[in-house]
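Ticket opened by: R.M.
Priority: normal
Category: complex prediction / small molecule

The reporter submitted a protein together with pyridoxal-5'-phosphate and asked that the result be attached to this ticket for the collaborator who will pick it up next week. Submitted input follows.
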Amino acid sequence: MRIETVAVHAGVQVDPATGAVTPAIHPSTTFERDPDGSFPHGHIYARSSAPNRAALEASLTALEGGADAVAFASASAATSAVFLSLAPGDHVVAPVDAYYGTGKLLREIYAGWGLAATFVDMTDLGAVEKAVRPTTRLVWAESPSNPLWKVSDLSRIGAIARAAGARLVVDNTTATPILQSPFKAGADLIVHATTKYLGGHSDVLGGIVVARERGSLLERLRTIQTAGGAVPSPFDCWLVLRGIRTLPYRVRAQSEHALKVATFLDAHPRVERVHYPGLPSNPGHEVARRQMAMFGGMLSVQIHGGAETAMAVAAKVRLFTRATSFGGTESLMEHRASIEGPGTTTPANLLRVSIGLEHPDDLIEDFSQALA
Ligand SMILES: *Cc1c(COP(=O)(O)O)cnc(C)c1O
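Result attached by the on-call engineer:
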């Protein structure tokens, strides 16, 4: 089946009790036992499993082509679960430009727990290879990466991980299952912030880990989910599943529009540099063409001048909302260095842009007046 069909149907069926076409939200925390003690519908207590969560997990499993998925209350909880599946003394190789919260978890929480981490530029395969130690159990990759949308070669990173006897985990949030299939590149686990494109409407926080195969790692993640308890609510799961139904069409439009906006900005005299893997001049373009179906809805732009000049542009746009996060229907713009604070390596004149579903010509006209 094609991914559009999977997005509409996986995890969703007409309710046999009512004929309802749209899935119900089941807030029940507890489920009835048969007289013989069995649970005919498979659910006992909502921390262990629940109908809306099972539906969401089935959908992501099908979208990524995995064996099973484990949903969490946020991607940070999902990321944390992956690190908890390791043991103190283990070593992780992670991208220096990993999602801010992922780096923070490793540095400020798991380091104290005994997990060692080396942060490298994942576009430099030699650096990845050099970072591997005998205790390396996990290589974490994220492509395209925030906020410069650098593209790393997942197949080759996967080969390095395999040779080291380590697992490859790919945070596939920015690419989504529509543009990139990390299991084909050898990933063992895929992590998503369902908060972004999967939910797609900036109204739900969630995370999920999809496992390529059944086995002890998946079981460990399931135990961390059910015993740890950082589970998403039925309504959260329902919202994400609703978002997924239109995911392929949203992501394709956002990718198409992002390329148009990036091309416009790239030719603008007030623009110093555009970071978008879809531009042929981008250093990651060739790998992105091999690895991705399209180039995604995220781009960053550096305006000639400093932080004030960039912030003046962000103050002048009318259609872009100045806010963090991404993947919703509305376009967002963010002055990245000020949100990252002191010590950031993000250029002071950089604006990060999430392309929504507005007409691309309106977005281009808005940028045009803001840059005038
Ligand atoms: C937003 C994001 C996360 C964290 O998601 P939360 O649901 O806010 O915890 C992790 N990885 C990437 C790439 C993200 O963009």
